[in-house]
């Protein structure tokens, strides 16, 4: 099994182009996980409070056009 220290050392020894490729892959993976979590939260109702807040503020005239 590879340890985090071994992984860090391997990353530090990567050529610049390979490092950039790895960073891009990690960012994409992170965004995909974030999108998946957001979709799960939305479908489960965890974000319904945002709609409720926006509706209440609209009724109070606190919203402005974008």
């Amino acid at each position: 099994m590879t340890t985090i220290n071994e992984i860090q050392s391997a990353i530090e020894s990567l050529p610049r182009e390979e490092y950039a490729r790895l960073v891009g892959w990690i960012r994409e993976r992170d965004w995909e996980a974030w999108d998946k979590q957001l979709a799960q939260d939305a479908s489960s109702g965890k974000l319904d409070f945002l709609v409720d807040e926006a509706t209440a503020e609209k009724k109070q005239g606190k919203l402005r056009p974008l």
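Helices lie at 4-12, 16-44, 48-59. The mean pLDDT is 95.
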